[in-house]
Structures are given as structure tokens and as C-alpha cells.
């Protein structure tokens, strides 16, 4: 921050009122009584007073007042830094609440699309405008109990500070009570596995997932199933199917919709890998995988 302290002087060159060199000075005639009154200085100064003196004094006074009005440099800087921090936190909170939210990836269930410890940003606006699309990467709250209860770690001040900054959106959310998967079926879809080639089908159309996003060597599914997705819900799978405890693991809970994710539990859709920098990339929906899927049997959610 630039130092706003002014120079000690007022910085104005002073006028030289001396008589230059040895130039002759005319001797005025002796004033008469009437002339004594008419000879009063026009600028309001008294006899014998240098007309420039009040101007110099005025400058010094103005300089003195400006020095007194200057704020203390150190405390002024501290106040400005605190204001910047407060505004940064407020802006981050508004952005997190209304626009985007940060998360980190704690497992390999979405490899190779997402790697362990990747930091991603999630668009929290998109779910408010309607249902998600097949192929979207979605972050959702674990309202169905897919994860074991998170133990109370009793973290110290460092953990408390991290959680506070994550809450306002300054740092990525590292809570274990969120999951991230890919949307395979939306409300009204019939999702099944597998066809004669071992592929997952949606409304009878086989998905070519292997070259699009599946982990190399991972089969579309080792489990056979056929489900119809309820309205306002999603059927989600991980990209690394061999390492993902996704909807297939909860098919036994289908009567309670335990295998499906409610739209109300969706936090948002992942759209960018922000960290580490060598993995920075935008996350695109693989439209070509789902473009031939026919209309679902029921209306949209």
C-alpha cells in the first residue's frame, strides 16, 4: 500500500523579496498629512509589514492543518486490510450460496474423470432451473444414508477454522456427507444392465460409455439390474464402476427409493477441476453417449 505521508514542508517554492543586485532604489518624497491616509496598503497590511508575510503564514497554517488531519498510517492500513477481508468473506458467502461451491474429491469412485484430492467447483444455480440431464456430474447430500455416519473427530482450532472458511465458501467443502456421481437415468427412464455386449441401456438404447468416461478396464456393471427411475429422482453411477458404491449397491432398498437420488438433495453439477493446476479443465457433458436415448416413458421431473 502506498505511503500517503506528505513531506514535512509544504512543497511551495518561496518568493525572494530582496532587492536584486545593487539596483538604484528611488527615494520617495515626504508624504503630507493627507497622503499618510491615502498611502495605506491596498492589500490590508499594516505599515512596514511585508505583504508576502501573511501569504507565507497562510501556507504554513494550511500545511499544519493538513498534517493534523492525516490519519495514522499504521492503523489506517490495518483498518483497510480488515475491510478487504470482511468484504472478501461476504462476497465468497454470496457466491457460494447463489452461484458456485467448492468441493474436494476424497475417493477414486469417479476416476479417471476426477482424481483423488482434486478440487472442483459446482454450479449450484443449474438445479434451480429444472431437472438435470443424463451425463451430468452431480454432487448431492447423502440423505439416503449411502455413507456410514461421520464420526465426531473433536477437531482442534485448525479444523474449526477450516470448517468455518468452508462454510462461507473461501475453502472447498471437505465434509464426507456429500457424494459425487454421474447421472445415468432421469425421472421416467428405464435403466438396465446388461445387453448382449455387457452395456448399460437406458429406455432400450445401449450406452457407449467405455471410451467416453469409464475407467480403463472397468466393465459398465458386474451386477445385473433393471429399474424405472421415479419422477423427480436420478439413477447415478460412478465412472470407476469397480470402486464405486453407487445406486447398484442399494437396489435392495428400491421399495423406499433408496437407490435413487431426489432432486431436492442435489447441491449442483460439477463444471471445472480447479486444482491442482496441471489438471485444470472444464467438465463437459458427454452428450454423444446419450443422444440416441429415446424419450422416457413418463413426463419430466
Short overview:
This protein is an alpha+beta fold. It has 5 helices and 12 strands.
Please tell me about this protein's structure:
This protein is an alpha+beta fold and 301 residues long. The chain folds into 2 domains: 46-98, no CATH class; 102-290, Umud Fragment, subunit A (Ribbon). Helix content is 22%, strand content 18%. The chain has helices at 33-38, 52-69, 73-98, 157-168, 287-290; strands spanning 100-104, 119-123, 137-141, 178-185, 190-193, 200-202, 205-206, 225-228, 233-237, 261-262, 266-275, 281-282. The strands form 2 sheets. Strands 1, 2, 3, 4, 9, 10, 11 and 12 form an 8-stranded antiparallel β-sheet that branches. A hairpin with a 5-residue loop joins strand 11 and strand 12. It is elongated and about 80 Å long. Residues 1-49 and 51-66 have low confidence and may be disordered.
Amino acid at each position: 500500500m502506498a505511503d500517503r505521508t506528505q513531506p514535512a514542508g509544504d512543497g511551495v517554492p518561496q518568493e525572494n523579496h530582496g532587492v536584486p543586485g545593487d539596483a538604484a532604489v528611488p527615494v520617495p518624497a515626504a508624504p503630507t498629512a493627507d497622503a499618510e491616509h491615502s498611502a495605506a496598503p491596498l492589500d490590508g497590511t499594516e505599515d512596514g509589514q511585508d505583504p508576502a508575510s501573511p501569504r507565507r503564514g497562510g501556507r504554513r497554517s494550511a500545511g499544519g492543518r493538513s498534517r493534523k488531519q492525516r490519519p495514522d498510517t499504521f492503523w489506517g492500513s490495518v483498518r483497510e486490510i480488515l475491510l478487504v477481508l470482511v468484504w472478501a468473506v461476504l462476497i465468497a458467502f454470496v457466491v457460494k450460496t447463489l452461484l458456485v461451491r467448492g468441493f474436494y474429491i476424497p475417493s477414486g469412485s469417479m476416476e479417471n474423470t476426477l482424481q483423488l484430492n482434486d478440487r472442483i467447483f459446482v454450479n449450484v444455480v443449474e438445479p434451480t432451473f429444472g431437472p438435470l440431464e443424463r451425463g451430468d456430474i452431480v454432487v448431492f447430500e447423502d440423505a439416503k444414508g449411502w455413507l456410514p455416519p461421520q464420526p465426531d473427530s473433536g477437531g482442534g482450532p485448525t479444523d474449526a477454522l477450516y470448517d468455518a472458511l468452508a462454510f462461507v465458501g473461501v475453502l472447498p467443502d471437505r465434509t464426507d456427507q456429500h457424494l459425487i456421481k454421474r447421472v445415468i437415468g432421469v425421472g421416467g427412464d428405464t435403466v438396465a444392465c446388461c445387453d448382449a455386449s455387457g452395456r448399460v441401456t437406458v429406455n432400450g438404447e445401449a450406452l457407449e460409455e467405455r471410451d467416453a468416461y469409464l475407467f480403463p478396464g472397468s466393465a459398465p456393471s458386474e451386477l445385473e439390474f433393471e429399474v424405472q427411475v421415479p419422477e423427480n429422482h436420478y439413477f447415478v453411477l460412478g465412472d470407476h464402476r469397480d470402486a464405486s458404491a453407487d445406486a447398484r449397491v442399494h437396489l435392495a432398498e428400491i421399495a423406499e427409493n433408496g437407490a435413487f437420488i431426489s432432486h431436492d438433495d442435489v447441491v449442483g453439477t460439477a463444471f471445472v477441476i480447479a486444482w491442482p493446476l496441471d489438471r485444470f479443465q472444464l467438465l463437459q457433458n458427454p452428450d454423444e453417449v446419450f443422444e440416441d436415448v429415446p424419450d422416457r416413458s413418463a413426463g419430466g421431473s
